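Page 42, continued from yesterday. The earlier attempt failed because a stray header line got pasted into the input along with the sequence. Redoing it now with the clean sequence only.
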Amino acid sequence: MKDLEINFFEKPSEMYNELMSNSETIIDRINVIVSDNLSNILDTHWENLLYKRFIDRKILDVVVDKELSDDSNYSRCGILAINHFDQKKIKGVKNDALRKAKGSAALLAFDTKWLRDRRKVELEQVNQSVFVDGEIKQKYGFVKNNAKKLIVVFQSSWANINLIHDNEGKVTHDLLNDVFKYKKYQFFQFAKRNKEYDFVFLEDEFNYIYGWFTTNYGTMIVENIQRFMKELSKEYQETHFVGASKGGYGAYHIGKDLEFVDSINLIAPIMDVESYAKRVNNQMMLKEISSNDDNLLLEIIERQKVRPIKPERIHLSTGKSDYNYKHIMDLTNEFPEIQVTETKEEYDHNDIILHTYKEVLKKTLNLE
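This time it went through. Structure tokens are written below.
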């Protein structure tokens, strides 16, 4: 009999991503989470939530945790738990594909309903509008608390490149409503709890094209977005920019030379698209942003080189395993006024966001 294939994951979110992209591999293989200290990973709410779901739905088979001292709770759930890697024991685990198929279907059905319900509740509380600047239509959501201070959150949503190609470069409304691709506004929860601010959630989706808040249909749109931000700021005593990951790219490169912005708050920001594309091995990304136009790509790179006019208003979080850590360190060495929160070396890009966004936004904007 052929040995079963085995999936190895370092944390529950990796297993969840695999389930979302290719559920058959989760169903047909033995699923193993291997960690030096699993309790540290499970300190994050999202990781802990996923972990419990995998156990409840009987999708996880084996836990290898070097800090494990008691396996009784796992045994009751039918999970092999060991404190060292033992290939023979792992290969001895029987795979119940039917049970996993039912568990996976139940988990995904629950998540879909939860996300849709959450999106519905959110849309009941947020307004959506469009700012028209020439041929550019800038879409955004907003929550009006009748405040004197404004927070603009640059969204980090990603385009589904295959569907864009299928639709001749245009993102369809169906795609935008896809619960897994566009489920909610990032950091929306702060708008409900912090009434001293109004909130704008700026989407990186203009005329149905994604361009990192930089390009649209082969045209630079940085000045268009900056004009929109200037118009918005006229109603407020303070204006603050926030962005995580790709949203951080937008918040920084749009805000760094605007006088009226009071703070720029970046959580694990991507600062340089060229190095990021190399890091994630996706050179097609550069062609998408630049519409395969070398001159436009040069314009994007030149925009990245523009230095910040008020570095003391920049607050950011990063870590040694972050995508653009070197670029961030070079920037902070050049401008030591920039305030930096640095995480543990083992935290990856998503870990940095999850572990630092509350701290950064509390420290700089007093968000609860």
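Notes: Residues 6-112 form one domain.
Reminder to self: strip header lines before submitting.
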